[in-house]
């Protein structure tokens, strides 16, 4: 029996950062409340594979309660965090599943990892026209549109409209955009090749729009070059140095560096560009009396705490880490960063509970991976540049390793193996957006 | 080179009957068009397992195009059949994926297997309040409600409302209702047992409402008795000789044979009762100048053809087969019936093309199976009554055998194995009904 009440840790967000933080705290003498809007942890780097029918939604998501079912000191709470009261040390919660009103959760230590979403460059009206592949629901909508487009092309009699159905435009040539475009290319060239009788799916045009002057701008130029060549071989055309200036029901208009515009007739547009931090970053900033940067991220110190609030740690895509001199550091918006920060946050809380001052967070860059298609990938691992089969196998193993849950690993492994052997995609369902 | 144009077979419905018919016709000298509203064949007997998170949607559905990709004489068409013109030998189609208007598909032989849906006893307004487990979308909605109910109970503070969240009512104690109720019982007692901190999920009440005086009325009374005992052991209470007279947002009102009513506070109601044939049965009947029976089914002769239309076969849940004397036969609304009828339809068309008169359809009853839970099932195989583990293993093997596609079989087998070992359910996601 301890005399003092246990230290209460509230973790907001069951993404990569939050889950790692809770995992590393579950043996500590603390009481943990993990809050998320969803009842599952989503393995975001593979969401685009749901959009292409390669995986089923359930295979890349793990129920949060299942992850922590054996940890008696971990409580999972479903609900939407609307704001914080840093002075009163409370998290404000709404939209609880019981339909009840707002509630407050008190904390002694707070960890916030609420992530980010795609920005539509200020054009939120494009969101329904060009769904992203970040949330599961949105990915299922992309899947519905890709598969419906081929069906529509099959029954369409007008050649111009048929061509528009067979034109797929992906906005953003970062890893997600490249992987999505590559998979659409493979669907058209391999998976669906023998499925239709009127159209030749291999005539589909897959266009990959990127603002920078090369695909995968986060990678070394040599690998971008290799990725671009792999993409072209599977029918993807990169359209570089172009931005989207307009999207409507049947087309997207691009503007190049020269200023010239072109309107492309495409019935299917998917979005994977721009990142904007969760609105909770601005809430934290407001409470701490600081601001947010252009990407909506809140500034945290070298130990990931909010200025003036050593009990509040924010991490992942929603923060901009500053070093001891106050200079912003450049950390990529990747799962490994959030995971390392989550583990660091747990250690920092344990340190403070033990009266020790935590060392500053240090990101260990283990490299950067992107897959382009069947047996094609690029990897930049501490300056070692890989491409082709070796990079692809590395990509597969790393993703399987970080998937949570033995069951999901096994199912995804089987899906990938069969998909490699048969060039098929097992989860090719067009389901309605609403129950009929 | 053949001189005559090939015989055109149009198959409406990619369910068990339609798929079997096309399979048995693909080597015949005919041109086949398979029309369905959906792009996939759904393994309906397992849809309820999607509702309980045991399986992912993609694991029990196979894209129709993938099934027939190697059959050059099979064309798959996505669209909604709205009517028939039996005189002009045309099928009328609408809601095509290209957004185009109605279209006509001519045929020489027609096979219609459009299936059935749950009747709400004339109360269609109950449909959104008590979703069924027949379509995938509806099953996903049931899954969302079951899982959300436990979440709501966990955050609910009022004990009465908490009890209502922990009350699950399943309407209909046929195989689907029994299996669904049994799985909810197992979720409450095993799967979620350690997941929550405030509620004890084992206190959940699962009520199974049935009009007849026993569960599984299609089975011999001894097996009904065994099933009822198994259900009670996993926390399911059968409420027999009762009908639903009212459903609202938070309760269902039942009426017993005595005429007494009781209102049960239950936040979650799922529907698995009553069967009504597809509306296409009435369309066929109207064209043939006959009527439909109380279940909306069209009458067909011993060779499954419409009266006066030897070129039109209707089959499965939407038909009432009459024998040579014109007496209605009693065939259960099961997948094996539809499958045998589908194969028969193919043979009958081949016979007629070869100038032979097809023999009447004869149903080979291979037995009746229902599972109740982990290692519990009942089987009635040609008078041999099995229960317990042996019946359960039979159930598993039969369902795996009839699932279409090696990939789905393997994935479902793995899900079931892991679920048996861990008592877990892998696909426990609460996803939004509409993209956020």
Q: What does this entry show, briefly?
A:
Two copies of one chain form a homodimer. Chain A contains eleven helices and 25 strands.
Question: What attributes does this structure have?
Answer:
26% strand; homodimer; 25 strands; alpha/beta; six-stranded mixed beta sheet; 436 residues; FAD/NAD(P)-binding domain; four-stranded parallel beta sheet; globular
What does this protein look like?
Two copies of one chain form a homodimer. The first copy, chain A, is of the alpha/beta class and 436 residues long. Among the domains of chain A are: 7-37 and 79-118 and 276-353, FAD/NAD(P)-binding domain (3-Layer(bba) Sandwich), CATH 3.50.50; 124-273, FAD/NAD(P)-binding domain (3-Layer(bba) Sandwich). In chain A, 31% of the residues lie in helices and 26% in strands. Chain A has helices spanning 16-25, 47-51, 64-67, 136-155, 159-165, 175-191, 221-233, 279-288, 335-353, 389-402, 406-422; strands at residues 7-12, 30-36, 40-42, 61-63, 74-78, 80-85, 90-94, 103-106, 109-112, 116-118, 167-171, 205-209, 236-239, 242-247, 251-256, 261-265, 268-271, 275-277, 298-300, 305-306, 309-314, 319-321, 368-373, 376-381, 384-387. The longest helix of chain A has 20 residues, at 136-155. Chain A is globular, with a radius of gyration of 23 Å. Chain A starts with 6 loop residues before the first strand and ends in a 14-residue tail after the last helix. The mean pLDDT of chain A is 93.
